[in-house]
Write a structure and sequence with these properties.
- This protein is an alpha/beta fold and about 200 residues long.
- The protein has helices at about 1-55, 75-80, 85-90, 95-105, 125-140, 160, 175-180, 195-200, and strands spanning about 55-60, 110-115, 145-150, 165-170, 185-190.
- Helix 4 (about 95-105) runs parallel beside helix 8 (about 195-200).
């Protein structure tokens, strides 16, 4: 009698252990699946965060930071392929103040890019003169850019920085260019650009 009871007990324990084994296996599979799912989600979120962290400020030059259109006979000189309007243009802002604001933004992770058109319908020889004049102007006034794009008139400016992804702000006086900007918000350079840039540095945007 006791032998039969002992046999039944061992059989019962075997069943319990087998169920326990299957239960543990299912739990492990469940944990492994959802852990993997969470890791994939975490990596996706990290990639999104990294993408969002790409912050780019794109500046036009003429009429935005350089007062080209106040230069005497600027249009006639450009048509005659003279570089002086680009060379002699005065800054539209006190450049030390603008530079200080941009340095703060750079410290916050913003990349500063200058994307400016060359003269409309210009020759290759004049393009080179204008490239030099604009580069020299930026150097003269110590504008703290990280990257410079001097491109053919009418070029879609977003194409120059699209590769960075993230969030990009265009600062430009041209309404049509601002309207066509698809990488983020825009700042109208026909108004004082210092206020929105300071707000950006103070994270009020």
């Amino acid at each position: 009698m006791s032998g039969a009871t002992s046999c039944e007990s061992r059989h019962f324990l075997s069943i319990v252990m087998l169920h326990k084994f299957y239960l543990q296996t299912l739990c492990n599979l469940y944990i492994a699946f959802f852990l993997k799912f969470d890791i994939i989600n975490l990596r996706t979120k990290q990639r999104k965060v990294i993408k969002i962290m790409n912050k780019v400020l794109v500046f036009d030059m003429d009429g935005t930071i350089a007062d080209l259109y106040k230069e005497k006979n600027w249009l006639e000189d450009i048509k005659a392929e003279k570089p002086n309007p680009y060379q002699n243009a005065k800054p539209l802002y006190e450049m030390d103040i603008l530079k200080d604001v941009l340095e703060v933004l750079k410290g916050q992770g913003w990349k500063i890019v200058v994307t400016s058109w060359l003269a409309k319908g210009s020759t290759k020889a004049y393009d080179e003169k204008v490239r030099k004049a604009k580069t020299d102007w930026l150097r003269k006034y110590d504008f703290p850019y990280d990257e410079l794009h001097l491109v053919k008139y009418g070029t879609t400016k977003a194409n120059c920085t699209r590769k960075y992804g993230g969030y990009q702000i265009l600062v430009d006086d041209n309404k049509k260019v601002r309207k066509g900007w698809t990488l983020g918000k825009t700042i109208d350079a026909n108004k004082d650009i210092l206020f929105p840039l300071v707000d950006l540095a103070l994270d009020k945007n």
